[in-house]
Amino acid sequence: MTGKSQQEITGLLLAWNGGDRTALDQLMPLVYQELRRLARSYMRRQRSDHTLQTTALVNEAYLRLIDSSRVNWQNRAHFFGVSAMAMRRVLVDMARARGSEKRGGGAIVVTIDDAIDAAPDRSAEIVALDEALQSLAELSPRQAQVVELRYFGGLTEAEIAEVMKTSERTVRRDWTLARAWLKREIEK
Amino acid sequence: MTPERWEQVGEIYHAASELDGEARESYLQVACSGDEELRREVESLLRASEGESNLVDKPLGAAAAELFDPGKTVTLVGRKLGPYQIQTHLGAGGIGEVYLARDTRLGRTVALKTLSSTFAADPHWLQRLKTEASAAATLNHPNIATVYSVEEIDDCSFITMEYIDGAPLSALIPEGGLDLPRFYEWFLPLADALAHAHEHGITHRDLKPGNVMITHDGAPKLLDFGLARIDRPADKAATPAADPDTGDSEREGLTRAGQILGTPSYMSPEQARGEAVDQRADIFGFGVVMYEALTGQRPFQGDSYAAIISEVLKVDPPTVSDLKPETPDLLARLIGKCLRKERRSRFQTMREVVALLYESRDSTPRSSGRIRSAVIRARRRISARLVIAALSLIVAALSGAFIWNRFFAVEVAAPVNARYAIQPAEPQAELSTAALSPDGRHLVYGGNLGDGPRLFLRSLDQFDARPLPGTEGGQRSFFSPDSRWIAFFVDSKLKKIPIEGGAALTICDDCPRAIEGVWGEDGTIIMTSSDAGLSRVPAGGGRPGVLTQPDAARNEIAHRRPQFVEGGASLLFSRQFTKGITLALLNLATGEMEDLLELGDAIGVRMLPTGDLCFARAGQLFIQPFDLRARRALGDAVPVLDGLHQFPNFQIARNGTLVYLPNTAMRDNLLVWVDRRGQTTPALDRRGDFRSPRISPDGRRIAVEIERDIWIIEIPGGRSIRLTFESDNHSPVWTPDGNRVIYASNRGGVWAIYSQEVGSVRDPERLHTNEYRVLPYTVHPRGDHLVFAQGGIGLQTDMFSLSLSGREATPLIASPFTESTPRYSPDGRWLAYFSDESGRPEIYIQPATSPGARVPVSRGGGMNPVWAPDGSELYYRWQTRLYAVGVNTIGAEIKLGEPRVLAEGRFLTSYDVAGDGRRFLMVRNEQGVSPRQFHVVLNWLNEFR
Hints:
The structure holds two protein chains of two kinds.
Chain A: H1 6-17, H2 21-45, H3 54-65, H4 73-104, H5 115-118, H6 122-139, H7 141-152, H8 157-164, H9 168-187
Chain B: H1 3-17, H2 21-32, H3 36-49, H4 61-68, H5 70-73, E1 80-81, E2 84-93, E3 96-103, E4 108-114, H6 117-120, H7 123-137, E5 147-153, E6 156-162, E7 166-168, H8 180-199, E8 212-215, E9 220-222, H9 233-238, H10 247-261, H11 269-272, H12 279-295, H13 305-314, H14 320-323, H15 329-338, H16 350-362, H17 368-396, H18 400-408, H19 410-413, E10 418-422, E11 430-436, E12 442-448, E13 453-459, E14 465-467, E15 475-479, E16 485-490, E17 493-498, E18 505-508, E19 514-519, E20 524-529, E21 535-538, E22 545-546, E23 556-565, E24 570-577, E25 581-587, E26 593-600, E27 603-607, E28 613-617, E29 620-624, E30 626-627, E31 632-633, E32 638-642, E33 650-652, E34 658-660, E35 670-675, E36 680-687, E37 690-695, E38 701-706, E39 709-714, E40 720-722, E41 729-734, E42 740-745, E43 751-757, E44 765-770, E45 773-779, E46 785-791, E47 798-803, E48 809-813, E49 819-824, E50 830-835, E51 842-847, E52 855-856, E53 863-867, E54 873-878, E55 881-890, E56 893-896, E57 900-904, E58 907-913, E59 919-924, E60 934-938
Antiparallel strand pairs in B: 1-2, 2-3, 3-4, 4-6, 5-6, 7-8, 8-9, 10-60, 11-12, 12-13, 13-14, 15-16, 16-17, 17-18, 19-20, 20-21, 21-22, 23-24, 24-25, 25-26, 27-28, 28-29, 29-32, 30-31, 33-34, 34-60, 35-36, 35-59, 37-38, 38-39, 39-40, 41-42, 42-43, 43-44, 45-46, 46-47, 47-48, 49-50, 50-51, 51-52, ...
Helix pairs in contact in B: 1-3, 8-12, 8-16, 12-15, 15-16, 17-18
């Protein structure tokens, strides 16, 4: 698994919530690995759904990594915040890897179906979104984080407000503006 | 932009987004106060915020899933899988990744499709894929991308297939669709390719423009036969109880996998409903692809999967003509019929679609020259043959010039004829007794929709047949001269019904043996039976009166095919003797009967409006120039059409339309080796109407009958030599030295047994002639005599021995029963054959020298015995099965084992055993033997007027 026990990981989460910034540096790679592992096994196992519920993954990672008896809902929201960040990295890394693979492979479509027409290359979209988010973060780190938590972590507005120590109204306002901006940037 | 500026933008954005129209306008005016850049920024964000975004508003699920699909996360580029060197990545498909690979073993480039482990982990699924792909691998058509293999190497399951270098059709359809010449250029071969696959029992199930590649040379290719099951939900759902262990979620898994990755736009309604699919789903899919290619628009559209499915199920799209008015009407209707929701309302076979596509192309004015030249070519062929006939006419100094003109005037007239096929949708359609109306507009035949047999009426200008209420149980119908009534036989009664529908009226309630009728202009109906003379009944109703009686003393069996001639004053009909047909004329006023012409084994003799005779013989349609007034034929009969069904039903209307049953059913048969476990492997890589295969004594050649000619085929290799070139030729038998083949032929109008040296140009030797049909079956191992069967119409078949030196035939078994298919044992001491003495054909063995003392072999039916090369077994056929019986002969004693089944399948009856006794050479029937379609030739008769 991750090499660290549930207790240790829970401890890192609590330490981070308590103000220990270095705890996050240790927590992040653990969550990253766990999410990646879960995603793979999920896809292998769950033939029933050809979508990957990122929220479900984050939940499962939480259950596996964190001793829920020791954390309150705020701690949980923070964990989800870390997970959203990790999820984003997992997906972007995967997408970049695939993108380079494709570019290296020549672009003739021999075949099969217009699956490719119907579902345009999503890996490129994810990379594009990631890049747009980085630009947004230069203008407003808070708005970028709202997007990250909501989009990659599947957090609710209340959870986002808790993680970010702000009001739900601000979260909502940030989301609408960030959404308009992202949409314009990606679709332009 | 700076963060501060962005904050400013945000403030104004939020305030403005709560206002609309003028209020927003004036607010922006004030808030931006002349800062045009700021205003543009806010306005562009406000615009962007409207509407859904594919990316931002959709959950990540599908994209994330794609990234994590284990089959997609590892590239194989640069790796080697067995003999396959993976070169580049070509793309991703519904089932995995596609690579360009080099098959180092065969030195060819292939497309290699991996199966993502998501799919390949299911052994049931994998097995089914293998079965399907293996079946698809047997397809051999220039417009089908060949599937080479399904393999598993290093835990990786993959399919290799022909690599097509080109572009998908989906990328080549311009806005507004393809122009017509391009459309036909691509879709005629594609339709033929799909028909070919269907005829081999393979459906595609996932037709769409992305599955059609156009090569750089402009050739269209259909891809991914047999692979579609993978993406398609319907097939899973079609067998819901098949894998109870795997559970619903798994089943759904494949379902949803297909839904996400594919598009339902090309799915048939039955697929969308999750029902079982057959080739008619492909016909729907092909219709959608044709529609899109021609118009540039998909017939079924929607924003979501569900919306498209709903369209497919419920909405009739605009016709192709609505979108593209220059589309030929026939083509537009054809595509419309492919897209019918009810599969029974669609075309039933792609062959029909192919024929109508050709017709729609050829009936457009631009291209009519092509078919015209084809007609002229055909006519030249006929003309060449007619020269001989015509010369004899001139010599005879009869009304030759008149005949000459009648035949050759057509060179000037040159009407355009059109050919197409009609395949009735009704199950069990009885086409061999179908009737064409005299006006050439309607066809009536028996069929059964599951609620009992009845008659169906199909107009030749319509796509569908309609059942005729009131004709339940009816069969063997014929039309009134004005084409407005249909008469038919049912329960020993003759009834009539108007073609528009209405009550069926009884004409005659006691005609149990009648099988055929003809309705005269004067309101008289003449009926025939299979074993009696002609009888007559008024069409208005009444009791039948006997008109003629066959002359049993002259071996006359029946009178058939009556036809009113000489203005209704006489009847032309066929006198059926055991030896063959004699055309006769009956004067209805005087009852005088006159024989006109002996026509041997002609079938369905009738007089054409031109006054000439027309009949079928040996799978060909003949015209016999004839002068009824002079009561004589004018020269020889000329073959005018090839490819009639063995039970020919051909009908010619007054307007010159010909409808006939083509000999298509047996064309796709396969010569196969069958081992003792019933496993088959093709013996020859081509298909055809193979009959009576016989392996040469050295085991290196096959003598076989193909469409009434004898061929010698080398095995392996398949090099073929044609041995015969005219008339019917049957039942080849090798002489024990393997130098000669003996066979029967009716060349020259008389049945005879010939012996021909294989590989020699010398004419065959005629061993024996017979007034009846003869079939040689077995040559004694000493090579001094053979045994043949002799039979005639209405006669029992008996066996004769024919000495090869003195050419004397002596009866071997002449009984009141049928005895046939004799075979000598390898030591020549025993003869096996079948006899129907018990009421059913059963196999018997008797000593070659003492007829009569025979031992029964089969129980419950048997035909076509064949000895094992070492004499230790006897094989025989009964229905679908091949049996083996152990044979032990000690002196004059014979001991038999229990019959056991070696193989079962759709095999024709005749077969042979290989020299090692391990393999059987058999003919596997692929299509069924009963005729399932008509061919229609419009204006056919105009060629001969």
